[in-house]
Amino acid sequence: MKKITIILLLTLLPSLCFANGKVAAIKKGQTAPFDGILFDKKAEATMAAKRESAVKICEIDKNYTIKKLKAECDFDKRFLTIEKTTAQNKHDSLMNLKNAEVKRLEKALDKATKPDYSRFWFVGGFVAGVGLSIGIFYAAAQAGK
Asked: Which of these, 51, 26, 49, 52, lies nearest to 39 by C-alpha position?
C-alpha cells in the first residue's frame, strides 16, 4: 500500500505543480518574466522519466497483483475441488459400510425371528417316548400271557 501511495504521489505531484502555472521559454542571460522554479532540459527530462517510470511501475504492480490474486483463486478452487472429492469418497465409503452393516443386521434379525420349534420337538419326543414305553410294556405283558 505504501508503494502505491508513493507512486501516485510521484505521478501526481508534478502535474499539481504546473496546474495553474505559467510557462516561458528563456535563454541564458535573459531575465525571467515571473518568479518561480526554472528547469533545464535535463531536469525536465528527468521529471518526465520519473513520471513515466512511476506509471510503468504502477502498471507492473497492478498486473502482478492481478496475476497473484488469480493464482490464489485458482489454487483455492483446486483445493476446494480436491476437498469436495475427498469428502464425497469418504461419504461413499461410509455409506457402503452402513449398507453392509444393515444387511448383516437384517440377516441376523431374520435368523432370530424364525419360528423356534424346539419346544414342539421336546413335547413330540416326550409323547413318542411315553407312547413307545407303553407299547413295549403292553407288548411284554401280552407276550407273558
From this structure: 26
Instruction: Give pLDDT tens digits for 115-132.
Output: 778 888 999 999 999 999
Residue type for position 50: K
The amino acid present at 131, given as its one-letter code, is G
What is the C-alpha separation between 41 and 94, in angstroms, rounded?
Answer: 78
Q: Sign (positive/negative) of CA torsion 24, 30, 31, 37?
A: positive
Contact 65, 72 (CB under 8 A): no
Q: How many CB atoms lie within 10 A of CB 142?
A: 8
> pLDDT digits over 76-99, tens only?
999 999 999 999 999 999 999 999
Q: Answer whether 0.70 is exceeded by the pTM.
A: no
The CB density around residue 54, as the number of other CB atoms within 10 Å, is 19
Q: How far apart are CA 141 and CA 145, in angstroms?
A: 7
Report d(CA 15, CA 37) in Å as an integer: 14
